[in-house]
Amino acid sequence: MSKIERVILIVLDSVGVGHLPDADQFNDRGAHTLLHIYEHLGRLDLPNLCSLGLGKIAAIGCAASENIGCYGKMREQSRSKDTTTGHWEIAGIVVDTAFPTYPRGFPAEIIATFEKRIGRHTLGNYPRSGTTILEELGEAHLRTGCPIVYTSADSVFQMAAHEDIIGLNLLYDYCRIARHILTGRHAVGRVIARPFRGHPGHFERNNAARKDFSVAPPAETLLDRLNDRGLFTAGIGKIGDLFGHRGLSAEIHTRNNDDGVDRTLASIQAYRDQSGLIFTNLVDFDMVYGHRRNISGYAQALESFDRRLPEIFAAMSGRDLLILTADHGYDPTYAAHTDHTREYVPLLIYGEKIKKNVDLGIRSTFADCGQSIADLLGAGKLNHGDSFKKDIL
Predict the structure, then answer these.
(1) 148-151 and 276-282 as β-strands: parallel, antiparallel, unpaired?
(2) Which end of the chain is more exposed for a tag (fewer CB within 10 A), N or C?
């Protein structure tokens, strides 16, 4: 039996650690989320992350002489840099073809079909940030009742609606209709419901009620494998949405990063006597700070998470393993575009029974993480990835 019976996997959404060798193909040469936040502010106070080895993979002024964990970096093999493919690759799927994007908006026939299905006209249909689109079209939405459709540099079909005009359940129904339409060559990675509140000049997105409708994974994932073998699989945050609500024994939605940590701690307690995986996504780094180019806010979010790490350490038992990683980068200082950045992601590992201060090097795919979890929990071989189990135990 493996020394490890339970894994806590936390994805720090968009926390990248330097551009990948193929970054030129994505117009991302020179991007480095963590380093550039540190250089812009002149400081980052992350003592607990540094104790796990973060300073050994990013020169952010905290290289500890002795680390309590194992550390390394992982390279993405999938031909994309979005949230869905990043999480899928962590779970053992490498996607060879990027999801479609729509820099000039969705084709007229897609919008016409969607409007016919929902019985309403739409507003927008162009790339914008979520806050800017409300400034531009929020008042027209209140006046006409037409939902706002927009996209971004990501493969997303986003729909914004005021909760007093189009209720949450109806907005979710509209998103399900869009998901049904957007298939084949138009199979975007995610359809996202973006409810908002307030009045002109003071609109506010209700991020807690955001809901993602992702395309289904094209093959078996780590979650499927664990679930099929009777191990528990708890998805916290938007994990359930990203995996098409497949392979999970529990889906736990969250309001923000702190709530995500709270739910993770609660799950550690709730599943204390079971074997399996707690899989958490902390989205605020990306959604609240990266996309809004809020450098100081991003740094504060990193420091806030770092301050909560001791709670996670204390909650863990000797049979637990903690893995911290990311799904892509989002350098908020990067001037070439306002999109995710093609970067390495951190690999930080902690547990009572693992070796200390071990350099795991540069892993050739995010899938090494998933394969290692499968190996640790006795779930066999995934389609992609090489296990680092023997390196850490």
Answers:
(1) unpaired
(2) N
Q: Looking at the domain assignment, is residue 102 inside a domain?
A: no
Query: Could you report the per-residue pLDDT of 198-226, keeping only the tens digit for each?
Result: 999 999 999 889 999 999 999 999 999 99
Report the alpha-carbon distance of residue 25 to residue 98 in Å, rounded: 13
Residue matched to tokens 């135990």: 393
Asked if residues 388 and 360 have their Cβ atoms less than 8 Å apart, the reply is yes
Length of the chain: 393
Boundary (domain end) residue, out of 173, 199, 214: 214
User: Within this chain, do residues 31 and 151 fall inside the same structural domain, yes or no?
Assistant: no
What is the full DSSP assignment across 289-339?
IITTT-HHHHHHHHHHHHHHHHHHHHH--TTEEEEEE-SSB--TT--S-SS
Judge whether 57 and 40 are in contact, CB under 8 Å.
no
Tell me the torsion sign for CA atoms 291, 296, 302, 304.
negative
pLDDT bucket at 154, cuts 50 / 70 / 90: confident
Looking at the fold, whether 123 and 85 belong to one and the same domain comes out as no
Chosen domain end from 214, 243, 271: 214
Count of structural domains within the chain: 2
DSSP per-residue string spanning 45-75: --HHHHHTTHHHHS-SS---SS-SSEEEEE-
Please tell me whether residues 229 and 82 are part of one structural domain. yes
DSSP tag of 146: P
Task: Give the CATH number of the domain where residue 196 resides.
Answer: 3.30.70.1250
Q: CB 154: neighbour CB atoms within 10 A?
A: 22
User: What pLDDT, on the 0 to 100 scale, is given for residue 250?
Assistant: 97
Taking only the tens place, the pLDDT of each residue in 94-146 is 999 889 999 999 999 999 999 999 999 999 999 998 989 999 999 999 999 99
